[in-house]
């Protein structure tokens, strides 16, 4: 009887302890969530602040170059000229109707090269991680595409894919994006800790399982770094494809504006595509911060 009473008393005393442990764990989880949200707000704010500073410095340098180099105002247009052209002039609505479709086309072409290039880079990085033979056979081709100037092989690409086709835009954009993205993703896949890989092998997992469970989640920061680097590359590839192949978008119109002495349109095109590239870069960085924060990884402003 005494033993039963002692057991009951012990059980009764353990219940408050368990409740305290649960409450402490819930409080710790809540504090962790608050710290993560606070860190996310800081990094997003830092990213937006950096983008704003970069934009202000860019505008100041642009105005300084136009004002201090002695270039004819007929040719050189500053930020205020572009602002007047798009916003304050009487024909600003017509000017926006002229410029914004060109920007939209360039963004569509950039998105195509970005998506295709990133997908191929990730697929190749996974294949290289699984098989050294594939890496030995394919990597020289990737390096060859990287070392040969794209302008020199663009005519061959256009001849094979057709002038003005979506395929030519996709191929040229992919070549620009592929190598830096592949290098970043490969670096991320190779950073997995040996102890984590050993745990997978101890439980009977093979190379593919280790890649799926350890390497790929750990490579997420490098994948996002590849995406950030690829954004300006994709825009460059789209401009080059439009210039050499399609004749549309900002890349195709810059030559026309220059030939027709429409210098305000020329400078406006350059300004719009530069600002949009900067915005896209920072959007990718903000998405990176959000995803890594939700996964409990270190969030940095980059």
Summarize the structure.
The chain has 302 residues and is mostly helical.
Q: What is the CATH first-level class name?
A: Mainly Alpha
Strand percentage, roughly? under 5%
Give average pLDDT, whole number: 83
First-last Cα distance: 68 Å
Sheet of most strands: none
* Tertiary shape: flat
Task: Output the CATH homologous superfamily.
Answer: MetI-like
The ordered string of helix (H) and strand (E) elements is HHHHHHHHHHH
What is the share of helical residues?
over 70%
Task: Give me the count of strands.
Answer: 0
Report what the structure shows.
With 302 residues, the chain is mostly helical. It has a single domain (42-294), classed as MetI-like (MetI-like fold). Helices cover 86% and strands 0% of the residues. It has eleven helices and no strands. The longest helix is centred in the first third of the chain and has 67 residues, at 2-68. The chain starts with a helix and ends in an 8-residue tail after the last helix.
List keywords for this structure.
mainly alpha, MetI-like fold, 11 helices, 302 residues, single chain, 0% strand, 86% helix, flat
Topology of this structure?
Blueprint: H1 2-68, H2 79-88, H3 92-130, H4 132-147, H5 150-161, H6 166-189, H7 194-202, H8 207-218, H9 220-246, H10 249-259, H11 263-294
Helix pairs in contact: 1-11, 2-3, 2-11, 3-4, 3-6, 3-9, 3-10, 3-11, 4-6, 5-6, 5-9, 6-9, 7-8, 9-10, 9-11, 10-11
């Amino acid at each position: 009887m005494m033993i039963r009473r002692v057991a009951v008393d012990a059980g009764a005393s353990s219940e408050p302890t368990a409740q305290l442990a649960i409450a402490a764990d819930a409080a710790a989880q809540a504090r962790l969530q608050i710290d993560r949200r606070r860190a996310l707000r800081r990094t997003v704010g830092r990213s937006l602040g950096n983008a704003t500073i970069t934009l202000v410095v860019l505008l100041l340098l642009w105005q300084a170059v136009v004002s201090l180099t002695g270039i004819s105002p007929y040719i050189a247009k500053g930020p205020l000229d572009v602002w007047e052209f798009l916003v304050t002039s009487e024909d600003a609505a017509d000017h926006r109707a002229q410029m914004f479709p060109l920007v939209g086309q360039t963004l569509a072409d950039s998105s195509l090269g970005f998506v295709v290039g990133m997908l191929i880079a990730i697929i190749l990085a996974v294949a290289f991680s699984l098989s050294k033979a594939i890496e030995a056979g394919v990597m020289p081709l990737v390096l060859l595409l990287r070392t040969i100037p794209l302008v020199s092989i663009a005519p061959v690409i256009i001849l094979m894919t057709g002038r003005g086709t979506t395929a030519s835009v996709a191929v040229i954009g992919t070549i620009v994006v592929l190598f830096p993205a592949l290098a970043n993703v490969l670096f991320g896949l190779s950073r997995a800790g040996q102890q984590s890989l050993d745990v997978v092998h101890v439980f009977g997992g093979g190379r593919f399982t280790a890649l799926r469970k350890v390497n790929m989640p750990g490579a997420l920061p490098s994948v996002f770094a590849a995406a950030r680097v690829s954004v300006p590359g994709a825009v460059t590839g789209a401009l080059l494809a439009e210039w050499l192949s399609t004749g549309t978008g900002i890349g195709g119109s810059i030559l026309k504006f220059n030939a027709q002495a429409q210098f305000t349109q020329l400078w406006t095109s350059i300004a719009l595509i530069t600002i949009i590239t900067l915005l896209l870069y920072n959007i990718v960085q903000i998405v990176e911060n959000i995803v890594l924060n939700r996964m409990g990884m270190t969030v940095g402003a980059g």
